[in-house]
Amino acid sequence: MSHHQEIARRPHIGTATVKTHINNLFARTGMRDRARAVRHAYRRGPIPAAAAAVT
Predict the structure, then answer these.
(1) DSSP 13-55
(2) Cα–Cα 20 to 30 A to 26, which of 1, 32, 41, 55?
(3) φ, ψ at 51 (rounded to 5°)
């Protein structure tokens, strides 16, 4: 099972939607790969639910 499929299975969204969100995250943060995005996320810490809901 791919990472996209595993992520999509949890909230019951499609694999294409997961890929779109990942690409949007990369575009917003200037990240080019998952490893950098994960490091960035660990350094910044959790995002409050209210802030995460803003698109």
Answers:
(1) --HHHHHHHHHHHHHHHT--SHHHHHHHHHHH-PPPHHHHH--
(2) 1
(3) -70, -35
